[in-house]
Specification:
The chain is α/β, with parallel strands linked by helices. It has one domain. The strands form 2 sheets. A 4-stranded mixed beta sheet has the order 6-4-5-7. The protein has a 3-stranded mixed beta sheet with strand order 1-3-2, sandwiched between helices. Helix 6 crosses helix 7. It contains 7 helices and 7 strands; from the N terminus they run H-H-H-E-E-E-H-H-H-E-E-E-E-H. 32% of the residues lie in helices and 11% in strands.
């Protein structure tokens, strides 16, 4: 798109850019790669760039319901087809589609689907010359849903959240967080007067509250999670010591567990 992106899209882009910057800064601070004289600084750089607009082609619809509410697989397939036509697919790239579909319950807040759910994928699951060859990652963040039903802060976190999915492999998540679920790398920390506010990091967004309508975000996530396995979860109910939470707020600051897992995976992909 050109420079006249609507504000929610600009904010989401900036949030992703900041999150990537956090990962790079963490990698440098931890000296996971920066101390190696065999690795140049350019190899550690992750670029976040805007792409041209993507329009949903009606010819890609195979079922009538997809005309009004295309499913997440349908949207991702159409997105990938357009990226392929532009010669933009690359194993070391994550392509994020920021879409505006506030009423599309089939896409929800967004997501990514195997085998295109991790950067670094390049033809390992199918014939690399075939139409469904694995070649990098594609993911969707439904900024329309978060903007209409939640808030700009949730939009920022969901954009980061969906990109981070493509940086977090299950084996590294298990090693870092002792869990197979990357959502559990997030944090939900009590803050504010009397600890009545729960501050939620990007990977925990849509999963930090109770599994009910309006439980933190308007709609609860449908993926894996276990509050007992979160990097940190201070709880949201009164427990005799802490009062019940009456407010959720969202921070774009990544948890240390998220930073560690993402850095390890990016280091693996680079090597």
């Amino acid at each position: 798109m050109s420079d006249d992106w609507p504000t929610p899209f600009r904010d989401a882009f900036a949030a992703v850019e900041d999150a990537v910057g956090q990962i790079q800064a963490y990698a440098a601070d931890q000296s996971l790669v920066s101390d190696s004289t065999a690795v140049s600084e350019s190899e550690l750089t992750v670029h976040v760039e805007r792409g041209p607009p993507v329009r949903f082609p009606l010819l890609s619809v195979s079922q009538p319901t997809d005309l009004a509410f295309p499913s997440l697989p349908t949207v991702l397939d159409a997105f990938r087809d357009q990226l392929r036509d532009r010669g933009a697919l690359d194993g070391s790239t994550c392509h994020l589609l920021l879409c505006w579909s506030p009423f599309n319950y089939r896409v929800g807040y967004g997501g990514t689907i195997s085998p295109n759910d991790l950067i670094g994928s390049a033809g390992s699951d199918t014939d690399e010359d075939g139409p469904n060859a694995v070649d990098g990652a594609q993911t969707v963040a439904n900024i329309g849903a978060t903007a209409v039903w939640d808030s700009r802060a949730v939009s920022r976190n969901i954009a980061i959240h969906e990109v981070l999915h493509t940086f977090l492999s299950p084996d590294i998540v298990a090693d870092v967080g002792d869990t197979r679920c990357d959502h559990n790398l997030g944090t939900a920390t009590r803050t504010g007067p009397e600890g009545r506010t729960l501050r939620v990091s990007p990977m925990a967004t849509a999963y930090a509250g109770p599994d009910e309508f309006g439980g933190g975000t308007r709609f609860h996530g449908t993926g894996c999670y276990d509050h007992d396995e979160f990097a940190r979860h201070d709880g949201y109910e009164a427990d005799g010591i802490e009062p019940a939470i009456d407010r959720f707020e969202y921070t774009t600051e990544l948890s240390e567990a998220t930073l560690e897992a993402a850095t390890q995976y990016l280091t693996r992909v680079r090597s």
